[in-house]
Amino acid sequence: MPTAPALAPAPQVRPRTPGGGRGARAGWTVAVAVPLAFLAVFFVGPVAEIVGRGFVADGRLDLGGFGDVFSRPRTWRVVGQTLAQATLGTVGAVLLGVPGAYLLYRCRFRGRDALRAFVTVPFVLPTVVVGVAFRSLLVDGGLLGGLGLDGTFTAIVLALVFFNYAIVVRTVGGMWERLDPRTEQAARALGASPWRVLRTVTLPALGPAVASAASLVFLFCATAFGTVLVLGGRRYGTVETEIWIQTTQFLDLRAAAVLSVVQLVVVVAALSVAGRARARTERALTLGGPAATARPVRLREPVDAVAVVVTALTVGGLLALPLVNLVVRSMRTPRGWGLDNYAALAVPQDTLAVSAWQAAGTSVRTAVDATVIALVVGGLVALVVSRRPRGAPARRAVAGLDTLFMLPLGVSAVTVGFGFLVSMDAPLGIPVDLRTSPVLVAVAQAVVAVPLVVRTVLPVLRAVDPRQREVAATLGAAPGRVLRTVDLAVALRAVGLALGFAFAASLGEFGATSFLARPQDPTLPVVIFRLLGRPGAENYGAALAASVLLAALTAGIVAVCERLRRPGIGGAW
Questions:
Q1: Record's InterPro entries (predicted)?
Q2: Among 180-184, 534-538, 542-546, whose mean pLDDT is lowest?
């Protein structure tokens, strides 16, 4: 019987390795080079220019400014006020935000999604609007004017808690809803009381999320500008407002440079703590899914009852009251109630070259440009930082890149804006004066918005199981196709939220824009601040109406973008 011919051995198919190939390496090189070039030209360069002018005299390094600045009692007072405001604002936001995180992310009740969206509104409001809202509430004639809190340290701390409450709620809540409830159930079955379960089981598990939220809140409180400038002025200034005063009023670049360095040290320390805590948080988020942990509110449970009471008082008294009062006060005129203040937005006030409506149009156009830039740059950074290299040097490089692109959150926007003015006449030696270009305002706003894009998209990309990429590569997909079908498909889930945060940050940016906006093309925050600085009830009423307009624009955009995201995405920052 004839034997069958031997079959030829099957060819060996070598699976493609993710990220392999010359083309892939070139693509990753571009993904790293473009954001680094953007950061070098539009952040490092301007900041270095300002710092250099403060520390270089007659072509030589002169560090005598440190001794001069720190010998002034005012400097120590400003630094002390900055740390005190940031510390108390952080403590207040955490104490009020943890019960809110439990109620909004661990419990289930009618209207929960709407309440989640509402508590996010203060964070996306421009800082100038926050300051105006609290001042209209606390000033003489305001709803709480009799408390005597206008222009006080307490008013600033309350406004900082108002602004940062959502960070704690979303960061802690995003982890809380993913905690495995079986550990708590086991403790309860063994006889532990609800409070003991919370203290010994739940809160320790939430430690990374609380630490991450607290460090971010401290960072935002320490670098608050518009809110502190409106509420505290020069009396209760921070390092941020002091840099603005030394630069714009005293032209003391040396003092501004010293204070910028001090602020940078604080920022790097806060970002380091946030990065370590956030890494632990992102690993813990894989413990469970949000749908399985939510349960109905039980008011008979002491933990639930306390969470409901604290959250109700916080939302009603701290979040809603200033916003409602702002709207009500904007309709009060010297002749009674009406819409005269809103009608006044259509015509220029006093010496302003444009009307508030024209400034709003300029703000929207500029914010659109800034958002596009921030999405491109921030998306590339998030894509690169989301990788998990095997080598220790590569891991340190990725972590360093992540921290590097967080620095614009903490470095004074005033320093960046003034740096643009003195360094953009010929950036990198190119004989092009960008200071006359309206695009420069959008670029400055994008510098501030890029970290928000990174923080929104990065957790989503890091949640991708690396085995998905390996399986796609093993089946023969090219690196570009793996990136497109796995990473980019997942990242699109967070783009809506990232777009909203970037647009809101750009629309309300005030520090750098106050330097760069041309008199004939001011943005709406600049117009509001100028109206507040002019005497007269008409100017104050127009400032209130313009603040309501700006708040409605930012909240509306974020609400639309929030609906574009997928459920369960973007809960933790």
A1: MetI-like, MetI-like_sf
A2: 180-184
